[in-house]
Amino acid sequence: MIRWRRFFADRQNWLGLIIVGLFIIAAVTAPWLAPQPDDGEPSPFKVVGQRLDRAPNPPSAEHPLGTVPQINLLPRFGIAPGQDASYQWDVYHTLIWGTRSALRFGIVVTLVTAAVGVLVGAVSGYAGGAVNGLMMRMTDAFLVFPPIAAVWLFNRLLFTRVLAPFVELPELSWWENVLYQLEIDPVMLALIAFSWMPYARIINANVSWLKQEEYVLAARSIGAAGPRILFRHLLPNAITPAVVLAARDVGGLVILATAFIFIGIGGNVAWGILLVGARDYIIGIGGNPLSHWWVFLPVSLALTLFGIGWNLLGDGLNTVLNPRARR
C-alpha cells in the first residue's frame, strides 16, 4: 500500500492516468460521442458530403473538426473500394473512433511481444550455458534488423502484394482473407516479430542473477522442478522491468505504426489512415499546414497525448515497482 500511496502522491503519475483514462473512456463511449450513420456499418470513418474540388472543409457546426477528402479503403472499414473519392471524412468521428483501433493495436502488439520476450528471456536465463548463449545471440540478430525492413519482408512473405489500407484490392487469397478477418496486418505481425528482444534481454539478465539467490537454491534442494522454480519463484521477481517497458511501448508502437501508414507501407490504425488522406494538404504541391490545420492537428495532438500518457504511466509504475527508483 505504501508503494501505491507514493504513486498517487506524484502529480505526474496522475497526469498519465488521466490521459490514458480519457482515451479509454473515449473508446468505450464512442457510439455516444460520435454516433454511426443509421444506414452504415460500424466504421472509424464517417463519409459526409461531396466536394468536387476535393479540398478539405473547415470546421463547422455540423463537423466540429472539419473534413478530409476520402481515400479508397478496404471493405473491413465499411467503405466499398472504388467509392467516389470526392466524398469527405469527418475528422471528429475518426478522432473518437480511432481511439479504439489505437488501443487495440497498441495493447495487443505489446501483450504478445512482451509474452514472447519474457518467455525467451526466462527460459534462456534459467538454462544458462550454451542454451543461453545461443538464444541471446539469436536475440541480438533480431535486434539489428530494422523494423521498416521487417514490415516489407512480412508484406512479401505473407501477401501476394504489398498491401496498404487505402489501396483497392479486387481479390484476396484465402490466407490474406483470414488475416484481414482477424484484423491482423503485416505491420502488426512485423512489430510483434521484431519487438520482443528488449523484454528478452531484461528478463534474461534478471533471471540469470536471481537464480543464484538463496530461496532458489533452497527450492532446488527440496527437489522442486525446474518449471516450478522458474514460473513460481523467479519470474514473479524478475518481471517488474518488463511491466514498465510494456506500459511505455503501447504508445510508442501506435506512433510507429502510424508513421508506417503515413509513408505508405500499410497498417490498420485509423488515425494514420486519416493522416494519409490529409497528406497532400500538409506536404504536397500547394499544401499549406497553416490554412488546413484541421487535417492534421487534431490527430497529431491525439497521437502526441497518447504517447505521453503511456510514457508517464510507465514512469509512474517504475517508481512504484523499481526499488532503485524509489531510493
List the helices and strands and how they pair.
Blueprint lengths: L1 H7 L2 H18 L1 H4 L13 E2 L18 E3 L18 E3 H37 L1 H15 L3 H12 L15 H8 L4 H8 L3 H14 L3 H8 L4 H13 L1 H23 L7 H9 L18 H25 L1 H4 L1
Antiparallel strand pairs: 1-3, 2-3
Helix pairs in contact: 1-14, 2-4, 2-14, 4-5, 4-8, 4-9, 4-12, 5-9, 6-8, 9-11, 10-11, 12-13, 12-14
Overall 3D shape: elongated
Q: Domains counted in the coordinates: how many?
A: 1
The average pLDDT value, as a whole number, equals: 81
CATH architecture: Orthogonal Bundle
How far apart, in Å, are the first and last alpha carbons?
A: 17 Å
Count of DSSP strands: 3
Major sheet: order of its strands?
1-3-2
CATH topology: MetI-like fold
What are the key terms here?
327 residues; mainly alpha; MetI-like fold; 3-stranded antiparallel β-sheet; 15 helices; 3 strands
Could you explain the architecture of this structure?
It is a single chain. The chain is an all-alpha fold. It has one domain (2-326): MetI-like (MetI-like fold, Orthogonal Bundle), CATH 1.10.3720. The chain contains 15 helices and 3 strands. Helix 2 (11-28) crosses helix 4 (91-127) and helix 6 packs across helix 8 (186-193). The longest helix has 37 residues, at 91-127.
